[in-house]
Specification:
It contains 12 helices and 4 strands. The protein is mainly alpha-helical. It has 2 domains: 206 residues, no CATH class; 51 residues. It is globular and about 70 Å long. It starts with a strand and ends in a 16-residue tail after the last helix.
């Protein structure tokens, strides 16, 4: 487990002084040149309205990160690059790649999938972070804590702190809006994206393992893991005060394996799907069930709303109800696989 992989300098030696990279620095200036060129390139292919509609959010997010967030995260050695954040980026890349491959097989061009993935990733990230901040609000809004530090802590996603289920409402709205704007069948788009989302979840859980969050309870199994001092689990279950943790379930790796298996099942089910939406409905059914079982091993979430269930287990029940409604609706649609679909595809 390695929470911090390395540091990125926010300035570099330059002559007798230093050259600022972030804030009002070189990287920000470069982005102010690159971003308009990116928008203009997309506009030349799809029109200015489509380009601005697709790119305003990622352009703004990068600008805020370079201009304000990264300098605020500087700990004296530079901006720490966390294992969690790196795995999150790898997860987004891998999930998007799989979605592009699947989209090609059903006639959705890669540019459309990339644009959809960007919106879904950003809005899913926002929802997952907001859910975490709400659930653990006492960590962010302590009495006497400066507002600037609170905002920095909220935006410091790379340090960990996302609730997967929190991403579902915002990501669902994002993909629905995207499909509506482009005139695409939303369930076909959801079928393309569902296995990729699970692949991203599997890789993201490895980031949780590196970070020491989302942990399981103490156990004596041969594959039990001790987390180093300074992690959340070591603070809760120290071997001795200030030391590494006692051996605990590597619940993060259980979740990674679970998500990978579900992704494989979703891909394997694709050739047998008779209607658009069945692959997505399968994921929406199986993932909440496995999450409820995994929550019995995890101990980082307390019971919620006066029940013996965690907030994730309660949300799993809601998702299962939504899955049942989606299956009911799908089963009443005409059968048949569109002609452009090959019999076997990713």
């Amino acid at each position: 487990m390695k929470s911090t992989l390395f540091h990125i300098p926010t300035s570099i030696p330059w002559g007798d002084g230093s050259l600022q990279l972030c804030g009002l620095g070189m990287l920000t200036i470069i982005w102010l040149v690159v971003a308009p060129a990116w928008v203009a390139l997309v506009a030349a292919r799809q029109g200015w309205r489509a380009a601005i509609g697709q790119l305003w959010l990622p352009v703004a997010v990068v600008a805020v990160m370079l201009g304000w967030v990264l300098p605020a995260l500087d700990d004296g050695e530079g901006v720490p690059v966390r294992g969690y954040g790196v795995m999150l980026l790898i997860a987004a890349t891998a999930g998007t790649w799989l979605s592009v491959v699947r989209g090609r097989r059903v006639g959705i061009d890669p540019d459309t999938i990339l644009a959809a993935a960007t919106e879904v990733f950003i809005w899913g990230l926002i929802g997952a972070r907001l859910f975490y901040v709400i659930e653990y609000h006492e960590q962010f809004f302590a009495a006497g804590k400066p507002l600037r530090q609170t905002l920095v802590d909220i935006l410091n996603i790379a340090n960990g702190g996302l609730v997967v289920f929190g991403s579902l409402p915002t990501a669902a709205v994002a993909i629905w809006r995207f499909a509506w704007r482009r005139g695409l069948p939303v369930l076909k788009l959801a079928d393309c994206a569902a296995p990729g989302m699970l692949v991203g979840l599997a890789i993201g859980r490895i980031g949780c393992f590196l970070n020491g969050c989302c942990y399981g309870g103490p156990c004596e199994l041969p594959w039990a893991v001790s987390f180093p001092a300074g992690t959340e689990v070591a603070a809760r279950y120290p071997l001795v005060p200030g030391a590494e943790s006692v051996p605990v379930h590597p619940a993060q790796l259980y979740a990674a394996i679970d998500a990978a298996i579900l992704a494989a099942l979703a891909v394997a089910w694709t050739p047998f799907a008779r209607r658009d939406g069945e692959v997505f409905a399968l994921v929406l059914t199986l993932h909440p069930i496995s999450r409820m079982l995994l929550e019995a091993i995890r101990v980082d979430e307390p019971p919620a709303l006066g029940t013996p269930l965690s907030i994730s287990q309660l949300l799993s029940l809601i998702l299962l109800a939504l899955a049942a409604g989606l299956w009911w609706w799908i089963e009443r649609q005409p059968t048949g696989v569109p002609a452009e679909r090959p019999p076997h595809r990713l």
